[in-house]
Design brief:
5-stranded parallel sheet; two-stranded antiparallel sheet; alpha/beta; signal; HAD_sf; 10 helices; 7 strands; Rossmann fold
Length: about 300
């Protein structure tokens, strides 16, 4: 069951969540379907330029993804054979895992699909994230698979392991998202292959855009062998999006990193960013930037 939040709070929570659409404040005019050649050129410095450039051009970026998925693949069959193995946090395991079908759970954006062209458009235009432009980008179905993920998911599927995508893409983007996944060669099967934002889960109270309810839904039918994401909210519910709250959410599961949970890099957006300015997207852009600079260490 969903909880209706005040508009301002709902926007903050939506933008801060894992595997959500990129967490940015409202954007300047201009749909994401505008050809790049016609897009206005930003006249001010953009904090996201280096992050997007690194994501698109640095071979180190691709090597991290390949390394992560290859390492996961090398461990997958051992996890499958261990009937006690489960990668859901205790709060999300609402049904016993023993005897259930095996699955791997992946976030989509910046975990499976590369949305850096959308971010590049924002850098070029000087704009910031908004839902309409994000939905337009998703409907283009042009996001590429990230390195290593196709081989990993196909390997999992070939061994009878369900591949489930939990994403904070809105549920009305499900057909475009599934089509994009299929075009990139990613396995898609069954009604639970894509659990988007707005998925109804009986007897579970939705907390903003947290994914806990959807993980609980999976727990009724699957033993989860591994989870993959670029945000800690892809793995566990984060009740307080600040440094202390984020550390508290992860501390019980540190031993799972690299065995049950595989975390991928995303310097372009995520809940880590609003945590630096008290999750206040109503603050002017310059003020948010000032607070981010304040968070830096100088020794």
């Amino acid at each position: 069951m969903s909880v209706r939040l005040p508009a301002a709070l709902a926007a903050v929570v939506l933008l801060a969540a894992c595997s959500a659409a990129p967490s940015k404040a409202p954007s300047a005019p201009g749909a994401s379907t505008t050809p790049v050649a016609e897009a206005p050129v930003a006249t001010h410095a953009d904090d996201n330029l280096n992050a997007v450039a690194w994501s698109q051009t640095a071979i180190e970026h691709d090597l991290i993804y390949r390394q992560t998925y290859r390492d996961a693949q090398s461990r997958l069959l051992a996890a499958l054979a261990d009937k006690q193995w489960d990668a859901l946090p205790k709060d999300d395991r609402v049904a016993p895992a023993r005897g259930l079908k095996p699955a791997v759970v992946l976030d989509i954006d910046e975990t499976v699909l590369d949305n850096s062209p959308y971010q590049a458009r924002l850098v070029r235009s000087g704009g910031e994230y908004n839902e309409a432009e994000w939905a337009a980008w998703c409907n283009e179905q042009r996001a590429r698979a990230l390195p290593g993920v196709v081989a990993f998911t196909q390997f999992a599927a070939s061994h009878g392991i369900a591949v489930i995508y939990i994403s904070n893409r809105a549920k009305d983007l499900d057909q475009a998202t599934l089509a994009n996944l299929r075009k990139e060669g990613l396995p898609v099967s069954g009604p639970e292959a894509f659990l988007g934002l707005g998925t109804f889960v009986e007897d579970c109270e939705q907390i903003g855009t947290e994914k806990g309810c959807r993980r609980q839904l999976i727990s009724h039918k699957y033993r989860v062998l591994m989870q993959f994401g670029d945000q800690i909210g892809d793995f566990v519910t984060v009740l307080a999006n600040n440094a202390a709250g984020r550390e508290k959410a992860m501390t019980p599961y540190m031993d799972w990193i690299g065995t049950r949970w595989f975390v991928l890099p995303n310097p372009t957006y995520g809940a880590w960013e609003p945590a630096l300015f008290n999750n206040d997207y109503t603050a002017p852009r310059d003020e948010r930037r000032r607070q981010k600079i304040q968070s830096l260490r100088f020794d």
